[in-house]
Specification:
This protein is α/β, with parallel strands linked by helices. The protein is built from seven helices and eleven strands. The termini are far apart. The mean pLDDT is 92.
Length: 220
């Protein structure tokens, strides 16, 4: 049995929170985005990146989702500020109303700053060297977009802007539903390096592999 917990239409389309056999599931325009069972990739996005970071004082999370990336960020005691950029204000509201109890503690953490808007525009408004870590889980990756407008987030021009907002030795990490030679090449072009971490997952009866792409800003 499937229960519709919350639903909203925005200029980008339909956003739906469902409960299926006790599991919460987020869908955008009918496309499965994430659920509260298969959270290993969201947690690894934060955990693997923060372990590789020299500093994690100020972290930006692009895309709130169901909050598991944010929860993992806050588990690092070095984090003083976690800035969450989410384009859908209703998703933030659903969290604040307690509709996603699994990550409710993270939402209420005093270190969290919510910013409603497009992650590219929010980043552009920040001064250089604002963040130690950028965690970007805004879409499903360059080849499986929910919003076509997000394609620019995987290109060199945007990655250059990310690099400018990082502190020396800062890290940007991008989640993707699949391997992407073009994204890997863009990361190497901008950062001079790209670490790709494959993540095997099982979704029901289907086995697949997600990917993390990490770029390290060199010390100057």
């Amino acid at each position: 049995m499937t229960e519709q917990v919350a639903r909203n239409d925005s200029e980008r389309g339909e956003l739906v929170l469902l409960r299926r056999e006790g599991v919460l599931e987020l869908r955008v325009n009918g496309v499965f985005v994430m659920d509260t069972v298969h959270t290993e990739t969201e947690r690894l996005l934060a955990g693997a990146t923060l372990r590789a970071a020299a500093r994690t004082d100020r972290v930006l999370v692009g895309g709130l989702g169901l909050g598991f990336t944010l929860r993992e960020v806050l588990a690092d005691p070095r984090v003083r500020e976690a800035h969450v950029v989410e384009i859908e204000p209703d998703l933030i509201d659903w969290h604040r109303r307690g509709l996603v109890p699994e990550t409710a503690d993270a939402i209420r953490d005093d270190r969290v700053v919510f910013r409603v808007g497009d992650v590219a525009e929010v980043l552009d408004a920040q001064p250089p060297g604002s963040f130690d870590v950028l965690l970007l889980d805004v879409d499903n990756g360059p080849d499986f977009l929910v919003y076509d407008g997000n394609s620019a987030l995987y290109r060199a021009d945007f990655l250059v802007r990310c690099r400018e907002k990082l502190t020396p030795a800062g890290i940007v990490a991008i989640w993707s539903a699949d391997a992407s030679p073009d994204l890997s090449a863009a990361m190497r072009e901008v950062f001079g390096n790209c670490e790709e971490i494959p993540i095997p997952v099982t979704l029901g009866q289907q086995e697949t592999t997600y990917h993390l792409f990490l770029g390290h800003r060199a010390r100057e």
